[in-house]
Amino acid sequence: MNEQVSFTLRRCNSDVLTCIANLSNDEVFTPPELASRMLDAVAEAWVADQGGANLWADKTVRFLDP
Fold first, then answer.
1. Would you list the domain boundaries of the chain?
2. How do residues 36-58 score in pLDDT, each as one tens digit?
3. Which residues contact 18 (CB under 8 A, 6 or more apart)?
4. How far apart are CA 59 and CA 9, in angstroms?
5. What span, in angstroms and rounded, lies between the C-alpha atoms of 66 and 26?
6. From CA 11, how far away is CA 3, in angstroms rounded?
7. Rounded to an integer, what distance in angstroms lies between the CA atom of residue 57 and that of residue 53?
8. Is 43 helix (H, G, I), strand (E, B) or coil?
């Protein structure tokens, strides 16, 4: 088991979306590139709907995990 842990620690992955995808227990894998494009589309739609407001800066916004 120690060998497996050291192998995992050597493979440092700094991309947050990839880390989340690797930790997920979903049966259907969503590639990080697709998740990133979806988040960009959500942010663009928010800007258009909210008169240029930044979605990620609004602390009142809440996301629900279905």
1. 2-57
2. 899 899 999 999 999 999 999 99
3. 32
4. 33
5. 12
6. 13
7. 8
8. helix
